[in-house]
Design brief:
Layout: E1 2-9, H1 13-23, E2 31-38, E3 41-48, H2 51-58, E4 67-73, E5 88-89, E6 95-103, H3 106-115, H4 127-137, H5 143-150, E7 156-164, E8 171-176, E9 181-185, E10 188-192, E11 204-207, E12 212-216, E13 221-225, E14 236-237, H6 253-259, H7 261-269, E15 273-274, E16 279-280, H8 289-293, E17 297-302, H9 304-321, E18 325-329, H10 330-333, E19 344-350, H11 356-367, E20 371-376, H12 382-386, E21 389-392, H13 405-424, H14 429-450, H15 454-464, E22 468-473, H16 478-492, E23 495-500, E24 517-521, H17 528-540, E25 544-550, E26 562-566, H18 574-592
Parallel strand pairs: 17-18, 17-19, 19-20, 20-21, 22-23, 22-24, 24-25, 25-26
Antiparallel strand pairs: 1-4, 1-10, 2-3, 2-4, 5-6, 6-7, 7-8, 8-12, 9-10, 9-11, 11-14, 12-13, 15-16
Length: about 600
């Protein structure tokens, strides 16, 4: 992985491809490259590091042509070197391939190819595809047919785009388990792994599904299945502005996206709250309304921050809807034997809608007869299309690798889902109306937190020089402790762990010593007094305490080093306020340590491999 762009049209391919790569930078990568069909043949330029390094290399090696492919890579097979960067070529240098995914049988394919005389230039799994296509072209096959002949040999997941000097005005792409989109522009066609690479040129797109191949020329495109059945697919218009992908004066995308969170709550709830009836109206669930009434159990599957959002949802749904809920890491769920039936709803949460493990979990659940629902941010994404029904976050593009506004919107949507199921069951009208009222107050409350950043900077001073940190929370704020720890480790590279505060004495307390930073999330809720006991235990061992609590809460000031207060709200909505200071703690710590919070090392925005 990580980002793919292909172009075939009348414009300068190098310019279009480089623009696409820049718009895919937020996904994370360690090298980049492009290949263009020029008058002198298929030429490739690659570089390790940022796209700026590729630009530097192209200053003396400009590739003039109107058809080409490009890629940003996160290393999976082979170190981040120029030789391992994409595109990869065959022995004749007439075929170039870019690839997202993992070819699981690449070792055996490589051995076979080497025995037949092929020489490899990289350590990657991708290069085997180029050599296999080289062999398939030897009998004079068209590029599209050669690619189709190779695909059955590949085991694993892939999104690939292939260029060849033998057909200089053609690109061929295929998908199995890794997203690809075809953009239809006035000056040609654009292939990409992410719509952000296309928005500058067109909003008219075709989503490729698994086991589909598309061949494009300057004038037309043709889609067929791996079984060679022609497919007619609708052209869809996607929302979004290229301007959404700009920083607009903010130092980082992460900061911009944190500051957008009041609007995110408004967008996630707009037209969905019914104050009179104390419920929510979720049009995306209308087709499965009857099935939802009969659901006996919910399983939430997700990865990373989305998993912690799901954990908050578990508390909400069990308390207010009275439905048993389990939250599972999608990467584990799909490899065990989950007990599912038609009385189970499996809710998949994913910002991108393309998270590989979550997508495979959805497919597993459908095979077992469960109702599948998606909570995703990207319209038309794989999870959105493959689940029976779902709800969009409407958080807007999230460029920062560490999730902030998307996480918040996921929790908001789960609260709306709770209202829907709760009012169908035991949730009273009065309580439903109160939840709606408090949800409507959230944008202003979040804005108050965003307008007062000095306490976050002061608290971050205790973290910036630390090597380790502990985050503690109870009940609804237990998942938020994990989310806060994840944010800190993701972007500041400080080892941090989240724990249920009641578990501190069962192991984590052994870490606490002089100056050891502990972030305690303790709003004035039903377990506030229990959380206060943690402060005594930490202080007795010399630890430094950063307390996140409700305005006016009666804490002992002698037990804390820094205090951050949040507005009062319902206990179930407290995570939506408590997470804001934790996002800023991580951001300020990263900046103090001179790290780029938008592009943390080794992380990708959309994890489309297993």
């Amino acid at each position: 992985m990580c980002g793919i762009v292909g172009y075939c049209g009348t414009q300068d391919a190098q310019s279009v491809l480089l623009d696409g790569l820049k718009r895919l930078e937020y996904r994370g990568y360690d090298s980049s490259g492009l290949a263009v069909n020029t008058s002198a043949g298929l030429k490739t330029v690659r570089a390790v590091g940022k796209v700026s390094e590729l630009l530097r290399a192209l200053k003396t090696r400009r590739l003039a042509g109107s058809t080409g492919i490009a890629h940003t890579r996160w290393a999976t097979h082979g170190m981040p070197t120029e030789a391992n960067a994409h595109p990869h070529r065959d022995c004749t240098e007439s075929v170039a391939v870019v690839h997202n995914g993992i070819i699981e049988n690449h070792a055996s394919l490589r051995a076979r190819l080497e025995q037949s005389g092929h020489a490899f230039a990289s350590e990657t799994d991708t290069e085997v595809i180029a050599h296999l296509i080289e062999d398939a072209l030897k009998d004079g096959a068209q590029l599209s047919h050669a690619v189709g002949a190779v695909l059955p040999m590949l085991e694993g997941t892939y999104g690939i785009v292939v260029a060849s000097s033998l057909e200089p005005d053609t690109l061929v792409a295929a998908r199995l388990g890794s997203p690809l989109i075809l953009g239809i522009a006035r000056d040609g066609y654009i292939l990409a792994s992410d719509a952000s690479a296309i928005l500058q040129h067109t909003r008219d797109i075709v989503y490729l599904d698994d086991r589909e191949i598309v061949a494009i020329t300057r004038a037309e495109y043709h889609i067929r299945t791996f079984e060679n059945v022609t497919v007619q697919k609708p052209v869809e218009t996607i929302d979004g502005e290229a301007a959404d992908l700009q920083k607009h004066g903010y130092a980082h995308f992460m900061l911009k996206e944190m500051m957008e969170q009041p609007d995110v709550v408004l967008n996630s709830t707009r037209g969905r709250l019914d104050a009179e009836n104390g419920t929510a109206v979720l049009g995306g669930l209308r087709d499965v309304e009857k099935q939802l009434r009969d659901i006996k159990r919910i399983v939430i599957v997700a990865c990373g921050s989305a998993y912690y959002a799901g954990c908050v949802g578990e508390y909400m749904l069990e308390e207010y809807a009275g439905i048993p809920v389990e939250v599972e890491l999608a990467s584990e769920f799909r490899y065990r034997k989950p007990i599912l039936d038609s009385g189970t709803a499996v809710v998949a949460i994913s910002q991108s809608g393309e998270t590989a493990d979550t997508l495979f979990a959805v497919r597993e659940a459908k095979e077992k007869g469960a109702l599948t629902l998606g909570i995703v941010n990207v319209v038309g994404s794989s999870i959105a299309r493959e689940t029976h029904a779902g709800v969009y976050n409407h958080a807007g593009p999230e460029i920062g690798v560490a999730s902030t506004k998307a996480f918040l919107s996921q929790v908001v949507v789960l609260s709306l889902f709770t209202l829907v199921l709760g009012r169908q069951r035991a949730l009273s009208l009065v309580m439903g109306q109160r939840i709606v009222k408090e949800l409507l107050a959230l944008p202003h409350q979040i804005q108050v937190l965003l307008d007062c950043r000095e306490p976050y900077r002061a608290a971050a001073e205790l973290l910036a020089d630390a090597h380790h940190a502990l985050f503690l929370g109870r009940k609804y704020c237990h998942p938020i402790a994990h989310e806060g720890a994840l944010k800190l480790k993701e972007i500041s590279y400080i080892h941090a762990e989240g724990y249920a505060a009641g578990e501190m004495k069962h192991g984590p307390i052994a870490l606490v010593g002089d100056g050891f930073p502990v972030v305690v999330i303790a709003p004035r809720d039903s377990v506030f007094e229990k959380s206060m006991s943690n402060l005594h235990e930490i202080r007795a061992r010399g630890g430094s305490v950063i307390l996140v609590t409700t305005e006016g809460a009666p804490y002992d000031a002698s037990l804390v080093d820094r205090v951050i207060t949040i507005p009062k709200t319902l206990e179930m909505l407290t995570p939506l306020l408590a997470v804001i200071p934790l996002q800023f703690l991580a951001y300020e710590a990263a900046c103090a340590r001179a790290f780029d919070p938008d592009m943390p090392r080794n992380l990708a925005k959309s994890v489309t491999v297993e």
